[in-house]
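Why should sequence recovery work at all? Because a backbone constrains its sequence more than one might expect. Tight turns favour small or flexible residues, buried strands favour hydrophobic ones, and helices have their own preferences. The token representation captures these environments compactly. In the example below, the structure is given first.
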């Protein structure tokens, strides 16, 4: 385990960029019913582009983490806090992959996918998942609904975990007087 007190610049940058992109993605789709109808497609296309970007950055972050161990948790953390921290971080990593992958799967099962090519930020053609797009009829619709449900559920799990993550950081910073914010470059 790394005995330094702070995360490195690369880990900090990836953390905050992914957090910002995921926040933007939530902010884009939650109020979508309030937007004019002609905004739906551009908003959803931007949401997909950001999701694929998060997937790529999450892969970079995971590879970085595997080759650069995080700093040790402060010795003042109780045993249950250490376990909770590891569990929460593991689940957050899983969600960084599960959310964009389930969204990509949901989009690949969309009945109109063939007539609406996917491009990243309107510039780079992006493939759909071939085995999903090749499914026909009702099975494809069923998968579209299933993957959409997964994507939504993962989103709600993310909201809860982010809230717990923030509350834990605030507790350690202000109640326990540990330099939590400094560890993450704040």
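From this structural description, the recovered sequence reads:
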């Amino acid at each position: 385990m790394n005995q330094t007190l702070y995360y490195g610049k690369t880990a900090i940058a990836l953390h905050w960029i992914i957090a910002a992109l995921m926040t933007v993605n939530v902010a884009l789709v939650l109020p979508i019913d309030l937007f004019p109808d002609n905004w739906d497609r551009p908003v959803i296309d931007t949401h997909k582009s950001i999701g694929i970007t998060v997937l790529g950055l999450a892969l970079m972050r995971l590879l970085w983490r595997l080759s650069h161990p995080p700093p040790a948790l402060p010795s003042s953390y109780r045993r249950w806090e250490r376990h909770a921290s590891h569990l929460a971080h593991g689940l957050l990593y899983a969600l960084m992959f599960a959310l964009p992958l389930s969204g990509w799967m949901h989009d690949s099962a969309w009945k109109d996918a063939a007539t609406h090519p996917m491009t990243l930020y309107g510039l780079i053609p992006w493939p759909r998942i071939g085995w999903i797009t090749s499914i026909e009829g009702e099975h494809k619709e069923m998968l579209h609904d299933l993957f959409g449900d997964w994507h939504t559920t993962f989103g709600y799990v993310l909201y809860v975990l982010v809230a717990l993550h923030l509350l834990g950081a605030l507790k350690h910073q202000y109640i326990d007087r540990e330099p939590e914010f400094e560890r993450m470059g704040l």
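A few observations help interpret the result. The longest strand covers residues 118-120.
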